[in-house]
Backbone:
């Protein structure tokens, strides 16, 4: 059982929903990333999505795009991200880390080399936004051979037949994108999300995480009542963007405390 699967199993026994914050590695500066990871855990993160900076994203809205730009300005690429995870693991062996990014950096070093390096860094899961399930069978095989969970996105427009294809490739959990658009866009329609999550549950026993559009305690609480995990990305990155070196960790801690209280109250 992977770390991700273990965390979901424990939370299910406790009747709780996972809180999964997202940050971009290297934002606002590489020196902060490992401290941010530890702060997220200290203030309630059950798992963490760590974004791999990329110059040409397709799912990220302007807030996370700017985060990638700040990280890339400091030359933070895949190698640096894996080094950050390895440093985090020196003092935390329990919190799952899920890399979220795009295929290009993986293709640049090769799927097998990436899987080997991710395993060596003790990565737990990988979300590759632009790897369609029809074309990544070998990649999934390499990840699973190293006990790394391939996590896939489902959208409001994903057809049932394709959901079957995706959930058969996925492990750990599936990530339901709660709205049509990029990260940080639009308002959350919780009734529609609830209906879609219920429908997806008819096709898989995997835990379902919901992200995109969760921006405060109220939307986090509403989502936690219907999902197995609540993913908060743009709001977290927005707080980081608005912070100084002096108040960065305290601002992130404050938001995490608000979100954790809301999720646990659901």
Residues:
């Amino acid at each position: 059982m992977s770390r991700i699967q273990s965390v979901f199993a424990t939370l299910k026994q406790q009747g709780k929903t996972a809180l999964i914050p997202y940050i971009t590695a290297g934002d606002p500066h590489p020196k902060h990333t490992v401290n941010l990871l530890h702060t997220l855990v200290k203030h309630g993160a059950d798992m963490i999505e760590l974004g791999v900076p990329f110059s040409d994203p397709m799912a990220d809205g302007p807030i996370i795009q700017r985060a990638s730009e700040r990280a890339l300005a400091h030359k933070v690429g895949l190698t640096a991200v894996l080094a950050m995870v390895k440093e985090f693991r020196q003092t935390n062996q329990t919190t799952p880390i899920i890399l979220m990014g795009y295929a290009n950096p993986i293709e640049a070093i090769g799927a097998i080399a990436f899987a080997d390096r991710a395993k060596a860094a003790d990565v737990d899961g990988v979300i590759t936004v632009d790897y369609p399930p029809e074309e990544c069978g070998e990649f999934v095989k390499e990840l699973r051979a190293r006990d790394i969970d391939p996590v896939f996105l489902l959208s409001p427009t994903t057809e049932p037949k394709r959901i079957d294809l995706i959930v058969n490739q996925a492990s750990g959990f599936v990530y339901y994108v709660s709205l049509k658009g990029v990260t940080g866009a639009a308002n959350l329609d919780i009734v529609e999300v609830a209906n879609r999550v219920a429908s997806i549950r008819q096709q898989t026993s995997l835990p379902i995480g919901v992200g995109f559009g969760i921006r405060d305690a109220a939307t986090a609480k509403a989502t936690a009542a219907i999902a197995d995990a609540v993913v908060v990305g743009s709001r977290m990155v927005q707080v980081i963007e608005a912070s100084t070196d002096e108040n960065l960790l305290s601002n992130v801690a404050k938001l995490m405390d608000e979100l954790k209280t809301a999720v646990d109250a659901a």
About this structure: The mean pLDDT is 94. The chain has twelve helices and eight strands. The longest strand covers residues 18-24. Residues 3-265 form a domain with the TIM Barrel fold (CATH 3.20.20.70).
